[in-house]
Amino acid sequence: MSEVVQSAPLRRLSVLSLLGGAASGAGMFALTIVVARSLSPSGFADFGFFLALSQVWFILAVAGLELAAPRLLARQPADQRGVVVGSVLTVASVLAVVGLVVAVVASEPIAQLTRSTQLLVLLAAAFGMATGWRAVVERLTAALGRVGAVAVVKVVEAGLIVVGALVAVLVLGTPAWSTFSILVVVAALLAVGAYVALVRHQTAPWHTTSQTRRQLISFARYAAPTTVFAVAIMYIDKFTLRIGGTDLEYAQYSAYFSGTVLIAVQAVFVLQSIVLPATVRAASGVTVRRQIMRLLPALVLGLPVLYLCSGWVVLQVLGPNYDYVLAQGALFAGWATLYTINILCMTACVGRASRAMRRESMVLVARVVLAVLALGGLVLTDQISITTVVTVMVLLELLETVNVMTMMRRYLV
């Protein structure tokens, strides 16, 4: 592993991944600031729920393809890559049709349950499917070695979102939440188009075969539950608070989330782009485990400080409607730290053994069930609050920490 980590090509790829991830994160932070300062807490709550709800359609759109596609592509010779890409896009197209049908059928019931509008639900579905396709073709582009191009697309997409949001404010004064929602949907679709063009340039003419589709689905069936329940555990708290809390509570919760957990998501993306290829190529899983264990003290000490500071800074710039409470901020920082470390360790385990993904899927199912029971109990007893919700999520993340440490001992060998 050390030879891989220290190689110049990998260092360049890591830097490019860092730049792309940082640009994407900065763009979403800038958009959050513009939206929070332009809209009332109720409008910001609607926009925050639009982003959260979109993840339902994200998991329908990817269904594990974002993990299965690059892995299958890496195993094929250059002249067979067109078959893999064609098969991936065929399966993704079927999933998109399914997602569209679900959006049309479920829009009214979801809107009534969450005090939302059908427009919000449908726009969330459009954004979720667009970001799902973006995740799939982005991973394909990176798997073909075009990490630099991925970084450029991320920077351009972030720039379009920020500039578009500022123009909307200057032209409209106080845009509706739907204006910002449409903006991010369009930016995601443009990114998809850019990645598709890059993949087409790097591969033979696309076509699909039943054998390749079966291989893809065979791996995706293990990856899909992991994706589904990983997203569920990340967003179930926001659905609960939307149902049981007030708009003001939801807006404040979204502000905390923007200040800490969104940075954690970007940190995870960057760490995964470094750890996963290094783990796959490493001669020994024990070496991987030892290097991660040496890295943990720095993460445990550094990440909480980073997340506390970022949370405080972000809430300061969101405007007078949002304040930073240290107790709640510390809970969010603890949650984000555990989340980052757990995903990092799980990524290393999956890189060495597919069985790790199957185990993680079962663990995630259990975590989602526990979260539904605990958070549902808070709603039914009218005890819902930011503090109680985050406390539940921290406890669940601690259970995941115990799980990933056990997985490292078993699979990093």
UniProtKB/TrEMBL annotation:
Transmembrane segments: 12-35, 47-69, 81-106, 118-137, 149-171, 177-198, 219-236, 256-280, 292-315, 327-350, 362-380, 386-405
Highest taxon of the lineage: Bacteria
Its membrane topology: Multi-pass membrane protein
Pfam families: Polysacc_synt (PF01943)
GO cellular component, one term: plasma membrane
The keyword Nucleotide-binding appears for this protein: no
Localization, UniProt: Cell membrane
Primary location class: membrane
Keyword annotations: Cell membrane, Membrane, Transmembrane, Transmembrane helix
This protein's name: Polysaccharide biosynthesis protein C-terminal domain-containing protein
Organism expressing this protein natively: Cellulomonas terrae
